[in-house]
């Protein structure tokens, strides 16, 4: 059983009340299109790049890293850097008409680092072909049309943005990680203005799950899941991340940090502080509410192992 420890949720939320979170405006020209670019082109860029935005690194696979223009990029940062380079060279690459023709070889040629090609290029190519085909069939090839038909809502009986994204294979995750990440990007860039922000959730990935387990807001009666002793099955992955999402939503409400803002902090914290191995606990700003800070053995816990997925 995966359960939420509500007293620990409140402890962590109280810590977040005292933390000032700097919001990323998502305007870094190395990673994202200009705010002055054509709206449809920018929407296509974000839809495509988030569709591709799942783990570039898994145990036993070469690290996805490159030095570009004298600066080191790795993981998701390199993914978006390569995306922006492609966008600058040929923005039509992100059009539905081009996506339906994309091949594994196209992805291998595009998403390659100093250490090799991004993992699962065939899967990523398939996700983009599906994205292009369904955009053409259902939305006349227009992401603006997709946004317009969402009726300024995230969730709605007639199809809010999160609901409509589910038709695309890249966005079919039951926990809706990529969908809420895309919503965060579009809202932040003033490309989507939902009137039901109370329905916003955090996009739950491995980084956020790891933090939830170590801080103790999530507990389990089977810790083989969090010690790399076995791989989680499909249903376990969904249940774990749904419970993590519920816990963070409550932290968002108590701390008065909006979900997208809280996600900014947690994702960077998981990537650089509460890392998979050798967490930097002495640099952690969550120390006073983190069970792993007080218990060295708990620092060995990690997110559940679930590799064969394009959800996150």
Please characterize this protein's 3D structure:
The chain has 312 residues and is mainly α. The protein has two domains: 2-23 and 200-300, Endonuclease Iii, domain 2, CATH 1.10.1670; 39-149, Endonuclease III, domain 1 (Orthogonal Bundle), CATH 1.10.340. Helices cover 46% and strands 6% of the residues. The chain contains 13 helices and six strands. It has helices spanning 6-17, 39-52, 75-89, 96-99, 104-110, 121-139, 143-149, 161-165, 177-188, 206-215, 234-255, 259-272, 291-294, and strands at residues 2-4, 65-68, 71-74, 112-113, 116-117, 218-220. A two-stranded antiparallel ribbon has the order 1-6. Strands 2-3 form a two-stranded antiparallel sheet. It has a two-stranded antiparallel sheet with strand order 4-5. Strand 2 (65-68) and strand 3 form a beta hairpin. Helix 2 (39-52) packs antiparallel against helix 9 (177-188) and helix 5 packs across helix 6 (121-139). The longest helix is centred in the C-terminal third of the chain and has 22 residues, at 234-255. The chain is globular. The mean pLDDT is 97.
């Amino acid at each position: 059983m995966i359960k939420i420890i509500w007293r620990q949720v409140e402890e962590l939320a109280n810590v977040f009340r005292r933390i000032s979170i700097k919001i990323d405006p998502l305007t870094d020209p190395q990673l994202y299109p200009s705010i002055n670019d054509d709206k449809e082109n920018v929407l296509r860029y974000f839809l495509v790049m988030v569709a591709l935005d799942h783990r570039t690194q898994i145990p036993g696979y070469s690290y996805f890293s490159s030095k570009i223009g004298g600066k080191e990029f790795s993981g998701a940062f390199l993914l978006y850097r390569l995306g922006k380079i492609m966008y600058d060279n040929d923005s039509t690459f992100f059009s539905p008409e081009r996506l339906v023709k994309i091949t594994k070889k196209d992805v291998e040629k595009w998403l390659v680092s100093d250490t090799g090609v991004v993992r699962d290029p065939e899967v990523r190519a398939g996700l983009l072909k599906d994205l292009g085909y369904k955009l053409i069939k259902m939305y006349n090839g227009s992401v603006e049309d997709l946004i317009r038909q969402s009726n300024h809502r995230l969730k709605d009986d007639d199809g809010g943005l999160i609901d409509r994204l589910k038709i695309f294979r890249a966005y079919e995750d039951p926990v809706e990680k990529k969908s809420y990440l895309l919503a965060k990007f579009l809202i932040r860039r003033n490309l989507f203005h939902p009137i039901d922000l109370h329905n916003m959730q955090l996009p739950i990935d491995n980084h956020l799950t790891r933090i939830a387990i170590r801080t103790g807001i999530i507990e389990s009666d089977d810790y083989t899941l969090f010690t790399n002793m076995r791989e989680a099955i499909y249903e376990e992955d969904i249940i774990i991340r749904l419970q993590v999402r519920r816990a963070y939503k409550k932290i968002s409400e108590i701390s008065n940090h909006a979900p997208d803002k809280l996600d900014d902090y947690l994702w960077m914290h998981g990537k650089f502080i509460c890392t998979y191995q050798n967490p930097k606990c002495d640099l952690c700003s969550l120390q006073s509410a983190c069970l792993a800070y007080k218990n060295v053995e708990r620092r060995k816990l990690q997110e559940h192992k679930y590799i064969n997925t394009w959800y996150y």
